């Protein structure tokens, strides 16, 4: 069975640019969450989506947005990139929004220069 | 303010001995706790969890203990194996965070052969 997949694996952008990260959940999972992991810290919650609706939002600026598609895949968009946005972006899927076990993908490493 | 703390950034243990990883939390609304293991270039992998209605949960070599009054949990690995060398994250959910996690900063475990 395929696990959570994310693309791209690595990305380099410059300040002010926009980036889109993609995630495909485990087959049958309807909930997708996004986390940001800065070097030396634990992952920090950004968004949760379930059945294409936003179910939760962490303490991130409006430059961060996301959406979920009918096939339950998801995109995370970050506008007006800052140097501080450089991080590993992790996607996690779960069966539904109340499922307390989330399964993580390998992440997309974003470097903002 | 860090709501989930792992005060030991690193831990070294001899193969075959017990590894004890500690985690403290400040938010009394947290009601579910998990441990994740992370290898380099991979996403976090779910290890074991515990609900606040329990004080112990075992799964093979892994046992998690929860002390609600002290707001403290620990992960015991017995016996430790070199393949257990990874970064271990403690995570908590509940209260206003719903089913999304607040992660600690992680502890790097090295199991020496």
Written overview of the protein:
Chain A has 113 residues and is mainly β. Chain A has no helices and 11 strands. Chain B has 113 residues and is mostly beta strands. Chain B contains no helices and 11 strands. Chain B has strands at residues 4-5, 10-14, 19-25, 32-38, 45-51, 56-59, 62-67, 72-77, 86-93, 102-103, 107-112. The N and C termini of chain B lie far apart (38 Å).
Question: How many strands of chain B?
Answer: 11
| Overall geometric form of chain B | globular
User: Compute the gyration radius of chain A: what is it?
Assistant: 13 Å
Oligomer: heterodimer
The poorly predicted ranges of chain A are: none
Question: What features would you highlight for this structure?
Answer:
heterodimer; A: 113 residues; mainly beta; 7-stranded mixed sheet; 0% helix; B: mainly beta; 5-stranded antiparallel sheet
Present the secondary structure layout.
The complex is a heterodimer of chains A (113) and B (113).
Chain A: E1 5-7, E2 10-13, E3 19-24, E4 31-37, E5 44-50, E6 53-57, E7 64-68, E8 74-78, E9 87-94, E10 103-104, E11 108-112
Parallel strand pairs in A: 2-11
Antiparallel strand pairs in A: 1-3, 3-8, 4-5, 4-9, 5-6, 7-8, 9-10, 9-11
Chain B: E1 4-5, E2 10-14, E3 19-25, E4 32-38, E5 45-51, E6 56-59, E7 62-67, E8 72-77, E9 86-93, E10 102-103, E11 107-112
Parallel strand pairs in B: 2-11
Antiparallel strand pairs in B: 1-3, 3-8, 4-5, 4-9, 6-7, 7-8, 9-10, 9-11
Write a short abstract of this structure.
In chain A, 0% of the residues lie in helices and 50% in strands.
């Amino acid at each position: 069975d395929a696990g959570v997949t994310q693309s791209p694996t690595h990305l380099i952008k410059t300040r002010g640019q926009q980036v889109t990260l993609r995630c495909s959940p485990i087959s049958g999972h309807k909930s997708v969450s996004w986390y940001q992991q800065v070097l030396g810290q634990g992952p920090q919650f950004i968004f949760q989506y379930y059945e294409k609706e936003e179910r939760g939002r962490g303490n991130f600026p409006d430059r961060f947005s996301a959406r979920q598609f009918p096939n339950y895949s998801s995109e995370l968009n970050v506008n007006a990139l800052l140097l501080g946005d450089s991080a590993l972006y992790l996607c996690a899927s779960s069966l539904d929004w109340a499922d307390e076990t989330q399964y993580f993908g390998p992440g997309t490493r974003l470097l903002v220069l | 303010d860090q709501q989930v703390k792992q005060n030991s950034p690193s831990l070294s243990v001899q193969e075959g001995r017990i590894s004890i990883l500690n985690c403290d939390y400040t938010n009394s609304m947290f009601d579910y706790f998990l441990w994740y293991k992370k290898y380099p270039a991979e996403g976090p992998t779910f290890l074991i969890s515990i609900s606040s209605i329990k004080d112990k949960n075992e799964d093979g070599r892994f046992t998690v203990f929860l002390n609600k009054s002290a707001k403290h949990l620990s992960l015991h690995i017995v016996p430790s194996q070199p393949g257990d060398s990874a970064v271990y994250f403690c995570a908590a959910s509940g209260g206003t965070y719903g089913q999304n996690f607040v992660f600690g900063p992680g502890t790097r475990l090295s199991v020496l052969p």
